[in-house]
Design brief:
Blueprint lengths: L1 H17 L2 H9 L3 H11 L1 H26 L1 H9 L8 H31 L1 H8 L2 H8 L1 H17 L12 H14 L4 H13 L4 H4 L1 E2 L6 E2 L4 H9 L5 E6 L4 E7 H11 L13 E4 L4 H11 L3 E5 L5 E6 H9 L11 E3 L5 E4 L4 H8 L15 H9 L8 E4 L2 E9 L2 E8 L5
Parallel strand pairs: 2-3, 5-6
Antiparallel strand pairs: 1-7, 3-4, 6-7, 8-9, 9-12, 10-11, 11-12
Helix pairs in contact: 1-4, 1-6, 1-7, 2-3, 3-7, 4-6, 4-8, 4-9, 5-6, 6-7, 10-11, 11-16
């Protein structure tokens, strides 16, 4: 009974400290008294741990003393008549009793209860949390002495009582990966959560469509030219700019124009249909952009650089793709092409984090500082000049060779992931 009581205390101690606060809080909100008691114990771990340790220590002492006093004498009498060992019967009896009690204490008083507590921490904690405060009240004088003593030593060692460490993204991702492996989560759910965490570390200039890929309309161009540009594009919204001043003036949504012309016929001037645009700084975070979209009630924004000039456009579709992955369209240019020799022909505008994830590369030098966001920007940062065709940058076992330039922009890069000497 003493050994089993020891097991109850050791298992309870581990179960309470191992139980998950979120699950307990859900049970407590549903009215579970045991869950409420467990939360209360976790809020004062010093008092609870002192109570458990008092019980475990007392049980250990009592079981040893009781076993030695009651079992060693009769066992010695049995061994006294055995030839050759009768002379040492008392010592052998004490040794056998100690070994037996130690074995029972380890197996039934520690290992098995703790294994059960680790397998079902929430259930065990809820079951034992209500009796433990009563035990704490009974042993309060001793608990007070031990608690004050441990607190004094903690202060002497300059160790604070700030509680447990905050849960990190890596730990959550590990838990979700483990849950996916066990079938608790779907693979798609794991990928979406990973995409949300990845989005939190990205800036607008990493997600936007850069200006040289945006079909922008000159507000001063003839209406026929404006219509031709829009009709040749599959997009539904177009930024209008003043080419002479290089300044964005707004955005035109094709649906608005189409609805008006369906009722009133073709118009000769598109200016009345140019709406004020949502402007976002290129250095804003992805989550800040999402909040701007929510506040403005739109899914289209013009991205401005530090000089107030258009640097690109950002849409809700871009943010969703950053979370769920790319949704290629027939008109999209393939950003990465695998060649027969195992190398990759990569678009210079490809974000470096996408290339890194695709090829399982380590972080690029200078990536964390935000010095660049695209592969072309990385090569420029390494060369410290405008690249030329055949320029080559080698990082570790990966080679980046400029294949083609579009003016001053890196257009195509040949990436080889195993450099041969």
């Amino acid at each position: 009974m003493l050994v089993l009581f020891n097991g109850l205390l050791s298992g309870s101690e581990l179960a309470v400290v191992s139980s998950r606060r979120a699950r307990l809080q859900r049970l407590a909100d549903a009215g579970d008294a045991g869950a409420k008691a467990t939360i209360a114990l976790n809020e004062h771990p010093d008092r609870f741990l002192s109570t458990a340790q008092i019980g475990i220590t007392l049980v250990g002492i009592l079981s040893g003393a009781f076993g030695g006093a009651t079992l060693s004498g009769p066992l010695a009498n049995l061994l006294d008549g055995v030839p050759l060992i009768g002379t040492w019967a008392d010592s052998i009896a004490v040794l056998l009793v100690v070994l037996t009690i130690t074995y029972l204490s380890l197996v039934f008083g520690e290992l098995v209860p703790k294994r059960i507590a680790l397998l079902y921490p929430g259930r065990v904690a809820v079951m034992v949390a209500r009796p433990l405060p009563a035990l704490s009240r009974i042993s309060r004088p001793v608990v007070t002495v031990l608690t004050n003593s441990s607190n004094a030593i903690m202060r002497l060692l300059r160790i604070g009582s700030g509680g447990s460490e905050a849960v990190t993204e890596e730990e959550i991702e590990h838990l979700i990966a483990e849950g996916t492996r066990l079938g608790v989560f779907e693979r798609a759910e794991q990928e979406l959560v990973g995409g949300v965490f990845d989005l939190s570390d990205r800036k607008v200039d990493d997600l936007m469509t850069p200006r040289h890929r945006v079909i922008s309309i000159d507000r001063n161009a003839p209406v026929a030219e404006q219509r031709r540009q829009m009709s040749e594009s599959p997009h539904s919204a177009f930024p209008f700019i003043d080419v002479q001043e290089d300044h964005p003036v707004g955005v035109l949504f094709v649906k608005t124009l189409w609805s008006h012309e369906t009722e009133h016929g073709p118009v000769s001037d598109l200016s009345p249909f140019i709406q004020p645009a949502l402007y976002i700084r290129e250095t804003a975070s992805a989550f800040a952009a999402l909040e701007h979209f929510r506040t403005a009630g739109t899914g289209f924004a013009i991205v401005l650089n530090e000089f107030g000039l258009m640097d690109g456009i950002l849409t809700l579709h871009d943010l969703f793709e950053a979370i769920a992955g790319e949704f290629p369209e027939p008109s999209d240019i393939q950003a990465m092409i695998l060649r027969e020799d195992g190398s990759w022909l990569v678009d210079g505008d490809l974000p470096v984090h996408e290339l890194r994830e695709k090829l399982k590369l380590s972080a690029f030098p200078g990536e964390e500082s935000g010095e660049f966001t695209t592969l072309g920007g990385f090569i420029m940062a390494e060369l410290q000049r405008i690249p030329r065709p055949a320029d080559r940058v080698v990082i570790g076992q990966t080679s980046f060779e400029v294949v083609d330039m579009d003016g001053t922009r890196v257009d195509k890069v040949l990436v080889t992931t195993a450099v041969r000497s």
